[in-house]
Amino acid sequence: MLDPQDPEATIAAAAARVSNWGRWGEDDVLGTLNLLTPEKRVQAAALVRSGVSFDLTQHFNTDGPQKGWLRRVNPVHAMLGTGLDAEAGIPAFPHGIGGADDMITMPLQASTQWDGLGHIFDHGKAYNGRRAGAIVTSEGDNTTGIETTAGRFVGRGVLLDVARHLEPETAELPDGFAITPEHLDATAAAAGVEVTSGDLLLVRTGRLSRARRSIAAGTGWGDYAGGESPGLSFTSLDWLRAHDVAAVATDTWGVEVRPSEFAVPTFQPFHQVAIPHLGLFLGEMWDLEELAADCASDGVHEFLLAAPPLPVTGAVGAPVAPIAVK
């Protein structure tokens, strides 16, 4: 299934096997989100028992994790009005009222986010066989922009804490560790949870935990954003297609294992199939630590998950502040 010496043929074969082109019609713009049906949301709502919620967001600030690679920088937050202005009577509103206002400038994929369907192409083709240059121009993604997903990212979330299952002493996987279908199946079985069609799948590797330990030690984020990392194996694409997940998110920068499993140079081969062929939405840099600890404590690895991206018109990816409710 994976020839380490021949990424070109391996990628092409995987793309043909898992392709969802035409599955929901030639005009489809939602890809695997079509699998997240109203019935799945009813199922998800029934999972709420205690009402305890978990913030899965790495907060958006100037301190990381970006370091400028691919022109991605950390958010720049600027105040347009402050308390000092109010004390000085600037601007001069009547009756003593004052206020603060602010703005932010940032790449849309600077922190916790979804990759949209216009984010990655394969040989000039976008999801559903569209010509890349026809759908994403200097004005943005005019067909599968992230705003097309508005109101849809609410459903049954499932956490597979592969790191805690395979490495119980550290709950962390080493960089370069490829999570295979066998690992996913074993983790699900140990957790007593089944991954079903339309699920929003979360996979924890422990990479964020290791980065935070580095920060606490004073050495910064290191290569968390763009460097080597544990992640999903290229071979997991068939597993994701067979289970018909609606989306998958991890606690890493790029979802897939880095470096790749190929012995010759490649760049994001998993992305090259998952987004343009499978039509799968990928979530990156999610904070799964608190949720994972709770799941390990109570043994419940399914929950209601609400994760709508900021609906920036024409965006090929967007920030998200996901909330899991148990």
Automatic annotation (TrEMBL):
InterPro entries reported for this sequence: KFase/CYL, KFase_sf
Gene3D superfamilies: Putative cyclase
GO molecular function ontology, one term from the record: hydrolase activity
Alphabetical UniProt keywords: Hydrolase
Enzyme class, first EC level, given as a word: hydrolase
EC number(s) reported in the record: 3.5.-.-
PANTHER family: CYCLASE, PTHR34861
Protein name: Cyclase family protein
Organism, as annotated: Klenkia terrae
